[in-house]
From TrEMBL:
Location in or out of the cell: Membrane
Protein source organism: Eriocheir sinensis
GO molecular function, one term: scavenger receptor activity
Protein name, per record: Scavenger receptor class B1
Chain residue ranges for the region called Disordered: 474-500
């Protein structure tokens, strides 16, 4: 009996230890794996993450589509512009972060990022940089906007300049000149006297003269002091906030807050039905993108996040971004405050998610698959594996100060060009990450399942032994003394004789 009891106790104890031990191991393995993963993600000197941070190891492309105004002479007489979209003109983009300075006490790194663009004719079918495009004279419009805030004398002087230099509200230039190379613009020299801007003093203008330039110093969190704000922007150009926008509805300064990351990486883990924040320098503001759906990329399941329509809608909460009533429209933001007063309106391409009257007026055709900004984020690491940032640049057409040059033009927001800046991590790289993220958990899960099963089996064996032992004891006959049985038998015989 003692031997059976010992066996049962040993089986039960070992079974419980196997179950409890395996479940405890799985609990702590999850946290150990998270800790190891987060340590690997930290931006630290000498780390592989730092190398990828300095120069993204994936191809980045910038595609331009320009809007050619086919009836510019009629527009000067009051007709609505007719637009012809031409493109894409595709450039490969190289990014390099340099002048890195770590602050280990704060857990940040400060850097400059240089962007260089190389034209890819092989990815620009049917178009060439020598193509001629007619578009709005942005310099003339900028001068009109600036001088309309001054006295009529300035407007008269500007009109004299326009006549002297033969300037009109529309120009025809090659795509190469309009984008990166620039073209000679005599008005810029006149504008330089008013603005003291060294860029104007060059006398050359281009819409995207940003080749081999940086956008100012960024300071971001490295994760060294915690991962909750990993790669969030702590400061831009040395400031924790920008100062371009008005107070918000409640008198606060939320519209000038720098929230989130630059978009390449986010604090992990990423949850479904959540949102992530990022600062978009082209818009001079922070935005939030929200979870839309799961998408597959190679072996990985990614969470697609898109820009909700209310982000650029006209609501009381977004009034602080309104510069004037004319450009305060759905899908648009007037970035003049952060463009030295230049009348530039950024929007979604083809006014996607914008007002229907603006779309129909210019014959635009917004399509989500072509014009929607999205980020596909791997939820375990917070890494963006596929992204497309799509933004359109526009110039307001206005009759500034009733100047003769602008007197008959229709007042509207005119699209100039839109860009698709995109990057995709090659599919073959997804398999290695999938193995890294899933193989350890699969092995641990299988191992835990085996140990739990064995533990349950041992406990069941112990229970079976107890049940069998009890059943065997119930069927066994009671022991009787031999002498008493014999005595009882003799007595029974005598009694039977007496009765007979």
């Amino acid at each position: 009996m003692m031997q059976l009891r010992t066996q049962v106790v040993v089986l039960v104890v070992v079974g419980i230890l196997m179950i409890a031990g395996s479940l405890t191991f799985q609990f702590f393995f999850d946290r150990l794996f998270d800790s190891m993963l987060e340590k690997k993600l930290m931006i630290l000197p000498g780390s592989k993450t730092l190398e990828n941070f300095k120069s993204p190891p994936v191809p980045i492309f910038m595609q331009f589509w320009l809007f050619n105004v086919t009836n510019s002479e009629d527009v000067l007489q009051g007709s609505i512009p007719k637009l012809q979209q031409v493109g894409p003109y595709t450039y490969e983009e190289k990014q390099l972060k340099y002048n890195l300075s770590f602050n280990h006490d704060e857990g940040t790194v400060t850097y400059l990022q240089n962007k260089t663009f190389f034209y890819r004719q092989d990815l620009s079918p049917g178009v060439d940089l020598s193509d001629k495009v007619t578009t709005v004279n942005a310099v003339m419009m900028s001068l009109g906007a600036k001088l309309s805030l001054k006295s009529e004398t300035f407007l008269a002087v500007a009109e004299v300049w326009f006549q002297r230099f033969g300037v009109t509200p529309f120009i025809t230039r090659s795509v190469r000149e309009l984008l990166f190379d620039g073209y000679d613009e005599p008005l810029l020299l006149q504008l330089a006297d008013l603005t003291n801007d060294p860029e104007h003093a060059t006398g050359r203008f281009g819409f995207y003269r940003k080749n081999n330039t940086n956008g100012g110093a960024y300071t971001v969190y490295t994760g060294e002091k915690g991962m909750d704000n990993y790669q969030h922007i702590a400061r831009w150009r040395g400031e924790e906030m920008i100062d371009f926008w008005h107070p918000d509805l409640y008198g606060g300064n939320t519209c000038n807050m720098i929230n989130g990351t630059a978009g390449n990486q986010f604090p992990r883990p990423i949850e479904r039905h959540g949102k992530v924040d990022l600062y978009v320098a082209e818009l001079c503001r922070s935005i939030s993108v929200e979870y839309q759906k799961d998408v597959q990329h190679g072996a990985l399941t990614l969470y697609r996040h898109v820009l909700p329509d209310r982000m650029l809608a006209r609501t009381p909460d977004t009034d602080c971004f309104c510069v004037d009533k004319f450009t305060c429209r759905a899908s648009m933001i007037n970035v003049a405050p952060c463009r030295k007063g230049a009348p530039v309106v950024m929007s979604t391409p083809h006014f996607y998610q914008g007002a229907q009257e603006d779309i129909e007026q210019l014959g635009l055709h917004p399509v989500a698959t072509e014009h929607e900004t999205f980020l596909d984020i791997e939820p375990n690491t917070g890494v963006t594996f596929r992204a497309a940032k799509r933004i359109q640049a526009n110039i307001p057409l206005k009759r500034y100060g009733d100047m003769p040059s602008f007197r008959d033009i229709p007042e509207l927001v005119l699209p100039v060009f839109w860009v698709n800046e995109s990057a995709v991590v090659p599919v073959e790289r997804t398999h290695a990450l999938h193995r890294t993220l899933n193989l350890p958990f699969m092995l641990v899960t299988v191992g835990v399942a085996v140990l739990v099963t064995l533990g349950v089996v041992l406990i069941l064996v112990a229970l079976v032994k107890v049940v069998l032992a009890r059943r065997g004891g119930a069927k066994k006959p009671k022991n009787r003394r031999p002498g008493k049985d014999k005595e009882k038998s003799v007595t029974e015989k005598l009694n039977s004789r007496n009765y007979s």
